[in-house]
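Render this sequence as a predicted structure.
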Amino acid sequence: MTEILIIMFSVILTNNFVLSQFLGICPFLGVSRKLDSAVGMGVAVTFVMVLATAVTWPIQIHILDRFGIGYLQTVVFILVIAALVQLVEMMLKKYMPPLYSSLGVYLPLITTNCAVLGVAIMNIDEGYNYIESLVCSFGAGVGFLLAMVLFAGVREKMENCKGIPECFQGVPITLMAASILSMAFMGFSGVVEGIFG
């Protein structure tokens, strides 16, 4: 149980895929202008991460490794993730049209979100079992959601700020704020190990 908690909290805080490993930067910068769309994107990415791991882990273990075709891992994982994103897109379009329209072009970009593929491959590379892989994927999704929500709050404050010099407005101040948020998460290094031994 302790190992499960270590995996969960380390992937949320100390090894955050966006702020520590710099995976998934495209939706992080693109959808974080408004809090509601950031939350929607974070939840959708979390759902896709967990679902992708639930499908790709057995495919890797029971098909690719069993038949010695592990070299097809990236291609197979991308195809599985693309199919899952299409499923999520159809569900959002049918059941949550406002969220579907607010996410816009960024929803299909979950297919190319390297954080989703990175989590699926990392679970295999780290040698996690099925439960640990699902926990890692859920924690990575929660970490992605946390980063999106925090950054959306920062960006909403920056939109209303009048004191930003003209040369820093737009992309420069956004990248500076993202780097400061990333450095803030570096403060969590050692915390998870300190709590759980």
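Summary. The CA atoms of residues 37 and 81 lie 21 Å apart. The chain has nine helices and no strands.
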